[in-house]
Amino acid sequence: MAPIRIRRVSVLGAGTMGAQIAGYLADLGYEIDLFDLPGVARKAWDLMVKNARCTLTGRGRITPRAMGADDAVMGQADLVIEAVFEQIDVKNQVGAAIEQHVRPDCIVATNTSGISIDEMASHRGRAFRRRYFGVHFFNPLKVLPLAELIPGAETDPELFQAFAEYAEERFGKGVVVARDTPNFIGNRIGGYALYAPFRFATAGLTPADLDLVWKTLFGWEPLKTWDIVGLGLARPVAANVYDRALDDPARDHWNPDVAQIQQLVAKGLTGRGSKTKRGFFGLGETRKQKLMFDFATGDYVPQATGSFTSLATAAKAKFPESLELLLGGTDEAAEFARKSFFGLIAYATAMVGRICDEITDIDEAMRWGFNWPRGPFEVAQAYGLGRCLQGMEAAGYGPLVGAWFRELCATPGAALYERTPAATYAPARHRMEPQALVPGGLYPEALLKDPAKGLYHNDEAAVVDVSSPAAPMCLVVFTSRGNSAGPGVLGALNEAMDWAEKRQGAVLIGNTGRDFCPGANLRYMLEQSEAGNAAAIEKLIKDGQDTTQRLTYCDALTVAAPHGYTLGGGSEIALGAKLRVVNQTVVWGQPEINPGVIPAWGGCMRLLRTMMRGLQPYYLFGEYWTREVAGDHLDPVWRLVSWAEMSRDAHHAKEMGFLEQKDTIVAAQGLGQPFVLARARAIAEGTLHAGYRRPEPFLFNLPGKALLSRFRMICDQGVIGGFFPAHNGRVATAVANVMCGGDARLGEPVTEQQLLDLERTSFMELVMTKEAQAAMRRVLKL
């Protein structure tokens, strides 16, 4: 079949999920028609930016429409996503309107969290049914990668597979294919976990205990999750399985009548989104004291855990030792842990073949949709499959265990996952199969283990060869604790540039860790400051400035691939590169004010440069560039640093000024960094092939001391009013001094090096103070 081509999308329903879908796709560049009742879509459109559904740029791609009056517009859509109220008769009514107006080649998906796809499709014509299937995005859509795709019995399998691949590569979603069963995968397994505290609770455990047990086992807290999603959803989520999945082997677990939830709902305590903003947990009148609901007294009490040795010990241990300590305990917390752990694993084994085909579908659904650090089968393997089976039998879950799991455990050396080479057990085929990798993806972990690829390494970073026939290229991978940037990272960057310059090639900077780089090595900075070693700190700052400047002006192409937290020194390294290929999920910022200093590897200068590059030279150096006009331009850039503002995602980062038009944003919530790094390599190859020239240094026109008083007054008022500490006022004033150009005069060009010198001087004046040392200790939680 022809490849899928989507430019225009109709989203029907401007409620919470419909608005999120519209905003998410608009930020990706799609033209969106957002339908709802007259006036409703317009109201949702007005609130798009305020509710962080999308950027201003994205909102410009959305057109609010009225259902009924504007239905003919659906005929222009390549994709229609129906996201109306979760009620079968409402969806059928809207489905009829869609069928009447869409083109014969239009793809139609219904966003539902558990209504039968075939039941809805039965009311439509055969041609419609072939291009119709279910999609379940998870809330919040911009944060959680999961998209469950559910084919109907008559869905065209080729079209469905093509859309699944498109949703991964273009929408950036983590796609799992679910069977058309109640609550699909995520809400079936996650729902079982959400109801566990009410089915297995042992007398004496507080709500805080229950959450801590689950956090220790699976890295996730069920009661806090209920408070986030809202307890008003508890009954319909359970009833959908209890009433429709009559063959569920743990049907009683889904009984929607839960006394604890009913008690809270009756009091209006339905979670953080309620008027009370309380559920199982809440805050005191001062918003500082943490509270939890006491079901015995019917009121809130200070949040606290009980005195359970197994839980207290396990909660402090690292995974998987934490499993050993908690599941092997003898107190009430350990008893609840065993019921929860072995019950969930047994249920998950029973659901393979019922709600999905592969164990990875369940693990990925829980990681992508419920933000678990590991899926249940990954946790089971860490504990030991044989021990899991024994534990399930001892806890009374033997009848629930899937036959495939029993068969596997009877095999010597049984495993669900293998690392070398990466493989996964396929229950339907009774064998290990190669784990799917991103086509062409770059996997730094594997490259670091290949002696033939290694070019350089130290304690903080490594350089590996990722050349292709198209271009010589190396990749700099941070290996320091938390990917922080210290002297070793700077050394590796310079080694990489030496290598690439000799070969007229490119340097990629990226990794597949949790974050690109959350900042410079703050612990090193604190140690040197408290030791009075100003020379060591100043050397690190000077080396950092020289390295980031070299990233910009060396004879090699430099490309950064940020993701996750890209903060402080990590931001400055990424800003120093000539190009950026960015994972959409990036959180970007310059929050140096939190540890009591200012950006000093060029962060102030580069953010200022990005803003001023957008101004025409005749304006920047012309008669209209007055002190007042300069101040209006400088103010938002100053606040970006002084208020430690951070982006929600890459699209937001672009509007804030961290990215330029030449940079590329890659939607990769599911395929992740290997996909982003592959795109970065391809873009680097294309740039080198097209003929690369290094940029020219930028000249600034800054007002100097004549404008500094404007910013100093804001800082002084904030300190006097008690809005922030005095040291924060000094930091913000120092940032303003850099951005105003120090002793510069309007009309006299200021060089990049002059601003770097101002950064370094201001940083050194702050970093050695007791206030900065105390701030660094707070950030490091020392």
How would you characterize the overall build of this protein?
It is a single chain. The chain is built from 33 helices and 25 strands. The mean pLDDT is 95. The strands form six sheets. It has an eight-stranded mixed β-sheet, with helices on both faces.
Count the beta strands: 25
Extract low-pLDDT stretches: none
The general outline is globular
Sheet having the most strands:
8 strands, mixed
Please tally the helical runs, counting DSSP H or I stretches of 4 or more residues: 33
Into which percent range does the helicity of residues fall? Answer: 40-55%
Terminus-to-terminus distance: 60 Å
The spatial strand order of the largest sheet comes to 3-2-1-4-5-6-7-8
Q: Strand share of the residues?
A: 5-15%
Radius of gyration: 28 Å
Rounded mean pLDDT is 95
The SS-based structural class is alpha/beta
What tags apply to this protein structure?
alpha/beta; single chain; seven-stranded mixed β-sheet
Can you summarize this structure?
The chain is of the alpha/beta class.
How do the strands and helices of this protein lay out in sequence?
Elements lengths: L7 E5 L3 H12 L3 E6 L3 H7 L9 H4 L2 E5 L12 E4 L5 H14 L5 E5 L5 H5 L4 H5 L1 E6 L8 E6 L5 H13 L4 E4 L8 H15 L6 H12 L3 H8 L4 H11 L14 H8 L14 E3 L6 E5 L4 E4 L6 H8 L4 H7 L4 H20 L7 H12 L5 H8 L1 H10 L8 H7 L7 E2 L4 E4 L4 E4 L9 H5 L5 E4 L3 E5 L7 E6 L8 H17 L2 E4 L12 H9 L3 H20 L3 E4 L4 E3 L1 H8 L2 E5 L3 E3 L13 H11 L3 H4 L6 H16 L7 H7 L7 E3 L5 H19 L8 E2 L4 H16 L5 H15 L9 E2 H16 L2 H11 L2
Parallel strand pairs: 1-2, 1-4, 2-3, 4-5, 5-6, 7-8, 17-18, 18-19, 19-21, 20-22, 21-23
Antiparallel strand pairs: 6-7, 9-10, 10-11, 12-13, 13-14, 15-16, 16-17, 24-25
Helix pairs in contact: 8-10, 8-15, 9-15, 13-14, 15-18, 21-23, 22-33, 23-24, 25-27, 27-30, 27-31, 30-31, 31-32
